Amino acid sequence: MRHVQILFLLSMSFQLVTAQTQWRIISNNEDELVIQVTTNPKTVDDLAPMHVLIGLPDSNLPSIKIRQRESGRHSIKELKLSETKWIHQQMVNGLQTGTLQISPTSQNGTYVKDQLITIQFSAPKRANRQLSSNQIQLLAPKIINWNWAKNWITPKKAILQKMESMPEGHWIRMEVTSDGMIKITGEELLKHISSSNDFDPRSIMLFTGSAFGRDRTYDLTQKATVNGNIPENLIELPISIQGESDGNMAETDVLFFYAQGPSGFDQNMAKVEWHQNLYFNSSAYWLLIPDDSALRGKRIETGNIVPDGPLSVNYGVSYLHFETDKINPQASGLAWGNTSIREGVSITQTVDLIHPVSSTIATGSFGMIGNEKISTRYSNTKHQVSLAFSGEELADMQWSHLGLKSNSFTIPAGNLAHGSQKFQITNNSDNPNSEPLIDYFTLAYIRQLIYTSPFDFFASVTSNNMTFSITGNTLKIWNITHPAHPENIPVRTEGDQTKMRVSLPTDTHQRFVVFNLDDIPNFTNLASIGLKIWNQLRNPSNTANHIIVGPSAFSTASQPLVDHRQHTVFASLERIYDEFSGGNQDPIAIRHFLQWTQVNWSQKPATVLFMGDADYDYRNITGQSNIQVPTIQVGTNYSHATDDRLVAFNGIIPEMATGRYTARSVEEVTTFVEKIIAFETEMPKGLWKQRVTLVADDPARPEREPYDLYVGKSHTLHSERLAKSIPDFMEVKKLYMVEYPEVNDGSVFGVTKPAATQALFDQLSSGTTLINYIGHGNPSQWAQEKLLIINKSRNDVDLIKTQMKLPIWVAGTCNWGHFDALDSESFAEVLIRKEMDGASAIITTTRGITVSSNIHYLESIFGQFFQGDSVSQATLGVLLQSVKTGGRDGELFHLFGDPAMPLPIPSQLVRSAKVSPDTLATLEVGTLSGDSPFDTGDGYLVFNDGVNEKTQSFQFASKQETITYLENGPTLFRGSFTFSNGKFFPQFRVPKDITYSKNNAKLRFNISDGNNREALGYVSNIPLTLGAPSTDTEGPIIIFETQNGRMLRSGDHIPQDETLVIRLSDPLGINLTGEKGHELWIIDPATETKMNVVDQFIYDTNSLNTGTIQLPIDSEADALSLVISAWDNANNPTEIQIDLILLKSKKLDLLHVLNFPNPFTNDTQFTFEVTAPASVTINIYTLEGRRIKSFYPQQFSLGYHRIPWNGRDEFGNRLANGVYLYKMTAENDGQKINHIGRLAIYR
After folding, report:
1. How crowded is residue 58: how many other Cβ atoms within 10 Å of its Cβ?
2. pTM of the prediction?
3. pLDDT band with cut points at 50, 70 and 90 for residue 161
4. Is residue 439 a contact partner of residue 338, using CB atoms and an 8 Å limit?
């Protein structure tokens, strides 16, 4: 096993302009590509290498000519030098490509300010080709010389080994766990075949996967470039059936063959190596009883008799391997070990040898895995391990990392004996933190050919005719050098010796298996399958644009999404295994299937959703694995998980767009499917669709080294860089943790920032289409200050409420999407699983990433979201795939969600809008006007003041530091409007609170036609100035309502799950700037906690004066008390409190029943409150019980109501003075409540 580091990723636009290192294409034609690179470094990140993907005419990497036109010096220490060079070559979607690393560094202390990179092509002339839609959408965005490279695409199919059609018949499945001879008795076989089946045993066929028991995943996923051919699925193996010659299967007949299990020794010419299968524990074999008994299965053939000769031996080479995988020390990747060894401790490896030839040497190797008792920052604990035998040291090795380490050894002649031999593996490290694990032990020795039970051996020589003498009688010997084509060797018996004469070739050590049929145990692990179809997915007539891969148990729950997406196919994992890896649970079968769709399906899908969770324990060694759809683990040290290699058919660059939903159950699939369909079909309207929220970690901690100050500042500064790639029609909200106060929570790290967390929750509640985070993180949290976290005592996912304004989360941090752990769930997984809330999709990392790689990647993906001054119409998966260009860190970023989901941002732009007057004064009304692409509809607008430069101070290592960035201008107006006749003219008002920024104000808007067609627009550079003073001295009017318009007063009842509507009104409008002292607060009077709801206020349609805040009630308390503090645009305040009683159930009740006035002369009113909609009646009685007046049933909604009475009876007569009884009855859904009261008439 070995570690292959993942390659880095960069931008795929035609020029990179947001970083301080920029490149652009100077010349692009069929003969050459010239790239100019300019560098003006401000930070160490600006000197990091970049990577671009270039289309090539063939697989040869062309030469690179670099012309350095200007150099400069920098003062950045500990800079890792790199060079401009090719780092990868691969065929991608039919085009040969090369990944070019561009480095601005020169030598220590210098960099290249300006350089020209020239690449010369020797391309044959080719006509314009008809490109597929997949090539256009997947290749065009990331090939920088696409305009010419598209002509170099070769429409050549991969070379396939087409599988012949399988005969119809009865299939029986077997599971084999190790290499060796398999024997099935006729009695056992007949148990699995219907008694009505009359068949000739000579027709029986045996099949297995073309990997013959082994996996292919390791060899095809751990290399940068691989052979992209799709292998044949099943191969037929020859068998032998003792007793078949009579054409009848009897119970005494015996079927036997040679099989390979998942792991074992493999031979390549003269090289013998152990293959450790890391992916499955048993290998599938298939017996076929054809319906057509005239067919004949393959049978073992007997080799030719070799003439006698003088050379004869009675020995051969035996190989032994010991490897028991129990522990994955990193809980990641492919390094599995057995026992750990503490400092100064020895472990004994016992080896049973069978008749070794003592006069010969033996050779072997042993492997270890670095491991630390306590993890250190650099994982560089020194390990020193020795191997000894009979008190003599055979080998010693030292290393200082967590990866694999191995060494070979030789045992001198005369040391080995028959029976158990003991080897000692000792940890000689002088560091008590050293606890390496034993990986494996392999031994090769010369043994005498003495038969006691079935065994195999290798010939120790080549290039001769040789007689082998085996002690033992009634033996069969097969040549298994080519195990899929074994050959029976003719033998002769001389006394107690069985002799075989063979011709040994020059290049390969021959391998033989020796057995007596009676010594092979009966095999009984058979399962009757019956009729089986092998080409449901391997059918060229299949078509799809999108594929969902999941276990068959998830099929029904996924079907609504299949229907919603259209042209979508659900492919069950079980069928994929059967048709592309012979039934073995080999993850590479998924890649073979997806590649098959690209080569053979008439409509080739571009996206694939992996519907199911995954982890690193393919074989469930821990007993905790719950793999639904496997991912690919890459490496043994600094390992990671990636789905890219399931669609990287020729190397490491993906050729389809992927996404994963880590469902663990059918219920979680249903939750996700229902959420995505509801989100896409019933998406809430509003300004949230053109809002991006940038979140940056605090620069103050962790405090370890001076370099950490740079890293800490980079979170905010890189967010500022990212803001530059967001077009003006998008509103950018900034949540920078450096601005928020610290609170000591008494924990180990001590400091949290709860105000920042609340601000994030508030922003999510207001709505944002994209939210990006840059900063420190781990699988369960953002920032050391616990901006977001899930643990036993706190689950912030529960507190995220978006009202289905589901954002796409992009988290440029470490490990936040670590989805392949066994005993924990990452924040990203928990978030995407949240029912009808949380997230529509998440893009984040599965492992740690460097600061420079992170910002380069984020700039690239945002560059794809917003291609210049526009919004991409590509799906989310295609957008993410387009920035995976063969660079180092690209594989670390995963999409959690459906890759076929489009961006929820409208892509149509209105460019004709303008604002009048040209300059707006405070308290003045402005008008937005423009042409709509729709005849009628409605819209939303937001008006913001200009940005300001802000310098914020903070403490780092007991010193005051500062950081400067652009602060958003306050919101001046947020409202909605309607329009008709293809024109819109909404109005807005400028508040008194403006910042007088040197940067002008900006207005953004979106419009829709009511039929899911939407468009965006903006007007920038709007000057603001001071207007005339106001004579208004009254603050806003604040009232409270239910969603159906019922007014609320203190003491009223409201259901716990209701949304409280807070209505604010003022002739000059409401101050939405949020400026200090003029915030729009909701205050809890009991705790005095405040929530600034300025982002949740929106004016009523076409209103300048009145608007609302929608406040969902989410309280376990019996009552709700709120204080609302608001200001109007002339800065006049109002503060009002309301106290409501929360109804926790739908139980009907009558409350506060009375009549007023009481006593009365002419008229009175019955007032009451119902806690649920109800039919209400009133009956009036004399004290003797005689009914004199009835009010017929009336339907009332929840809340307070009144019923007037004029004091007259049923016949209209005035009642006499006196006391009367009344009975009020409320009824609802079988519930009935009565209230009896007294009233008096006094005239």
Report:
1. 13
2. 0.91
3. very low
4. yes
